[in-house]
Amino acid sequence: MEYNKKLLSAGNTNAKTVKNELPTKILYLHPSKIEGKEICPFASEGCRMSCLNLAGRGVFKNVQNARIERTKFYVLNKFAFYDKIQKEINSFAKYYKRKGKNVAIRLNGTSDQPIVETLIIAQMRHIENNVIFYDYTKNPKKAGTRVLPSGHKYVVTYSYSEKKDSLQNSLDILNNGGLVAVVFNKLPKTWNGYNVVDGDASDDLMINLKPGTIIGLKAKGKAINDKSGFVIHI
User: Fold this and answer.
1) Is 137 helix (H, G, I), strand (E, B) or coil?
2) The pairing of beta strand 190-191 with beta strand 194-198
3) Which of 23, 74, 216, 219 could form a disulfide with 196 if both were Cys (CB 3.0 to 4.6 A apart)?
């Protein structure tokens, strides 16, 4: 399978990433089962019901179709996918490198896949050194801030859900200096003894947050009426 359009979307196409401090590109895949592969294997029921896949421009059929086609390309032609995304990242990064700026890349805008790790470690693709990667995940083993073998910083925030082990996972991650995102009906100053910051202020704020911080997100769209426990009510 071939995919001739751009894989990465500009940060200014998203209401939150447009506020980012760093120039940003995001990959939007379709968060469902595509060609037999679960794109969000750790998603809870509450997460699926409140999924941001249909937020903003995601409500349009052409946007959904594009995400499905990108995902098929990712699943069915991985080598070509990584070749293309490497070129897109480096083209973007080089432009800002000439201006003396770092850039932020989020490769799981609406997915939860090991794309960054595969790109850097398994595929061993060269990526410009002014790139900082960041993501959200429901996989507690993936959460944390690390420096990849390539020297790139990769910040992964764990997303709290209504699953029975998610609270303990969140507290363990916070206690170990990681970051946790929690959706609230209204933002508190603290949660379980940890400071909460306004995660809607920008999408890339996690890159420079203090260890052990909660990224508070206000319930939006379908999440406003969530009854699963995915949204914490204060």
Assistant:
1) strand
2) antiparallel
3) 216
At 47 the pLDDT is 75
Average pLDDT for the chain: 92
Q: How far apart are CA 145 and CA 180, in angstroms?
A: 12
Q: Which two tokens stand for residue 170?
A: 């969140």
* Structure tokens, 26: 């995001």
Distances (CA, A) of 122 to 125, 133, 149: 8, 16, 11
How many angstroms separate the CA atoms of 98 and 94, rounded?
Answer: 6
The region that residue 212 occupies, defined by phi over 0 for left and psi between -120 and 50 for alpha, beta otherwise, is left
Point out the least confidently predicted range of 52-61, 95-104, 140-149, 214-223: 52-61
Mean pLDDT for the stretch of residues 78-103: 98
Phi/psi of residue 149, nearest 5 degrees = -55, -25
Q: Give the closest residue to 116 by CA, choosing from 72, 159, 85, 87.
A: 85
